[in-house]
Write a structure and sequence with these properties.
The relative contact order is 0.12. The protein is built from two helices and 29 strands. The N and C termini lie far apart (88 Å). With 394 residues, it is mainly β.
Length: 394
C-alpha cells in the first residue's frame, strides 16, 4: 500500500514537471484605442515563468511608425529581471523596440518585461508583432527551448475631424441657407471650443439648428465670427457622437461667394481627461449661382473655382475656374493674415473652363488663399467671386 502511494505521488510529480516543460508561456501585448495626438503607457507582460528555467530572452517588437511612435521604454517589474544584464532600446526611426536579457539565475513569477509610452500619430491601425519582414518570429526564450503564445498586439488610432459642408446659394437676398457641420470619430469628448469666420457681406448669421441631442452646445455670433462652445461640467458625462452631424448653421444669404473658415489658432477639442486632441478641420464654401441658369451645368457652364491641384504643393500649383462668358478675371493671392501677395488680371476670358498656374516659389510654407473675381463684359450678371485655401509645403 505504501509503495503504491509513493508511485502515485511520483506520477503526479512527473506529470506536473512534464506540463511545465511542454507548456506555453503567455505573452500579452497591449490592445489600445485612442485619438491622434494622445499618449498612453502600456506593458508587455508574461505569465508565470517559474519552472521554465528562463535564463535569456530576446526579441524585436515591430509596429507601423506612420501610425504610432513608441518611446521611453523601461525595464519591467518581473521578479529577477533587474538583476540580469539587459538591452532595451526604442528605435523610433525604424519602428521597433529591441530587447535582450540574460541572467545567472532563472526568472520566476509573472509581470512585465518592459513598459513604454505610445504616441498616437495618425489615424489607422497597426499590429504590435515580434515577426520580422519575412514573417519569422524574433522572440526567443533560452535559445528557443521554451514555447509561447502571444495575446493581443493591436493599436487603433482614431482621426477626429470637423467639416463644414460646401453649399450652393441662389442669388437672392430672401433665401436662407443651411450649412451642415459634421464630425467623425468624435468619441469621449470632454470640451469643444470652435471659432468660424465668414464674410458678413455675403451671409448674415441667423441661428443654429439640429444640434446633436447628446451635447448642449452654446452658439453665438459677433462681427462675422461664429463661436461654438461646450464642456462637460460634471467631468463624468463626455460626449460620444461617433460619425454624425454636429449642428446646422443657418444664414441669411445676400449675394456673392465666400468661405467659412475655422480660426485654427482658437479652436480646441479635448478628451474627457482634459488632454487636447489633434483635430483635422475642413473649411466650407458657399458658391453663388445665377438664377435662371440650369443648375446641373452650373460648374461647367457658369462660374466656379475648383480646389487647386496638387494641394498641399511645393512651389507651384494649378487652379481651374469656369466663367459664363467673356469678361474680366482677376486672381489674387493672400497669406494667412490677409496680406495681398499677388494680383493678376486676365481680360476677355471666354466661356468655359480655364487654368491658371499659381507660383509660390518665393514664399515659405504655410496657408494661403486664392481669390478669383469675374465680371462679365455686358454687365448683366454682376461681379462673381470665389476663394480657395492653398497649403504650401516646402
Amino acid at each position: 500500500m505504501a509503495r503504491t502511494f509513493k508511485l502515485f505521488l511520483a506520477f503526479f510529480f512527473l506529470l506536473g514537471f512534464e506540463s511545465r516543460i511542454f507548456g506555453q508561456v503567455q505573452i500579452t501585448l497591449p490592445q489600445l484605442e485612442g485619438f491622434e495626438g494622445q499618449e498612453e503607457y502600456a506593458l508587455l507582460s508574461v505569465s508565470d515563468l517559474s519552472g521554465y528555467n528562463v535564463l535569456s530572452i530576446q526579441f524585436n517588437l515591430y509596429y507601423d511608425k506612420n501610425i504610432i511612435t513608441i518611446e521611453e521604454t523601461e525595464i519591467g517589474n518581473l521578479p529577477g529581471l533587474s538583476s540580469g544584464f539587459y538591452i532595451n532600446v526604442a528605435d523610433t526611426a525604424s519602428g521597433l523596440i529591441k530587447f535582450a536579457w540574460a541572467g545567472m539565475s532563472p526568472l520566476s513569477g509573472q509581470g512585465s518585461l518592459i513598459s513604454f509610452k505610445i504616441k498616437f500619430k495618425s489615424a489607422g491601425s497597426t499590429n504590435l508583432s515580434f515577426n520580422n519582414n519575412n514573417g519569422v518570429s524574433t522572440l526567443i526564450f533560452n535559445n528557443d527551448s521554451v514555447q509561447y503564445f502571444v495575446n493581443g498586439g493591436l493599436i487603433k488610432v482614431k482621426g477626429i475631424s470637423i467639416k463644414i459642408d460646401d453649399v450652393v446659394a441662389e442669388n437672392s437676398s430672401a433665401n436662407e441657407i443651411v450649412i451642415p457641420v459634421n464630425v467623425t470619430d468624435f468619441d469621449n469628448i470632454g470640451a469643444v471650443s470652435l471659432k468660424i469666420n465668414f464674410d458678413p457681406s455675403v451671409i448674415f448669421y441667423a441661428r443654429a439648428e439640429n444640434i446633436n441631442s447628446n451635447i448642449n452646445l452654446n452658439v453665438t455670433e459677433q462681427n462675422g465670427i461664429v463661436t461654438i462652445g461646450w464642456f462637460d461640467i460634471t467631468g463624468s458625462s463626455p460626449a460620444s457622437l461617433g460619425d454624425s452631424k454636429f449642428l446646422d448653421l443657418v444664414f441669411n444669404y445676400n449675394t456673392g461667394s465666400c468661405s467659412l473658415q475655422f480660426i485654427r489658432t482658437q479652436c480646441e477639442v479635448s478628451d474627457s481627461k482634459g488632454q487636447l486632441l489633434n483635430v483635422k478641420y475642413y473649411d466650407g464654401f458657399i458658391q453663388q449661382i445665377v438664377s435662371g441658369v440650369d443648375n446641373e451645368n452650373v460648374v461647367a457652364e457658369n462660374f466656379f473655382l475648383e480646389q487647386n491641384f496638387p494641394n498641399p504643393f511645393n512651389a507651384q500649383t494649378k487652379i481651374k475656374y469656369s466663367v459664363p462668358g467673356d469678361g474680366y478675371v482677376s486672381v489674387k493671392l493672400f497669406n494667412s493674415i490677409g496680406e495681398e501677395l499677388l494680383s493678376t488680371s486676365i481680360d476677355a476670358a471666354g466661356k468655359g473652363v480655364h487654368e491658371y498656374v499659381v507660383d509660390c516659389s518665393d514664399y515659405s510654407s504655410g496657408i494661403y488663399f486664392i481669390f478669383l473675381q469675374y465680371k462679365d463684359v455686358a454687365g448683366n450678371i454682376g461681379t462673381l467671386t470665389a476663394t480657395r485655401k492653398l497649403i504650401l509645403l516646402r
